[in-house]
Amino acid sequence: MTDQALDFPILLAEQAYAKSQVRQDFIDHMADIRETMAMIAKTDRQRDLLDAAMVVYRRGYIAELSKVLRAYSKTPAFRVPDDQLSEFGKADLNFSGWQRRAQRNMKDNILVVEQPKDRWTRRVSRPVIAGGRSA
Length: 135
Prior knowledge:
mainly alpha, elongated
């Protein structure tokens, strides 16, 4: 190795790359979620709800991702034996579970807002009781 190679700040370069990669992953993920949820948000009310839900999701995502990154920074090696779940592994599992739950909740909340119905579909069918009368 030359003296110039020893002077190269490899750790700094790795950290800078990791930072830019995490940032880009975050941007891509938010765009994917918005695109996916926008497909189910048909009405103006649903789109407004989606906007508000994306703000909440973004805050939660950053909080959960921060936990993973803090745990990762404490983990000596990226890979740990399967039988030993590190703090990073636990945080990563929690983050994955949080994403699934948050996305499902966002989708459910958007779908709860009823789509407009025409006047003929507003009738509520009533169950028929013994004797042929409706309840």
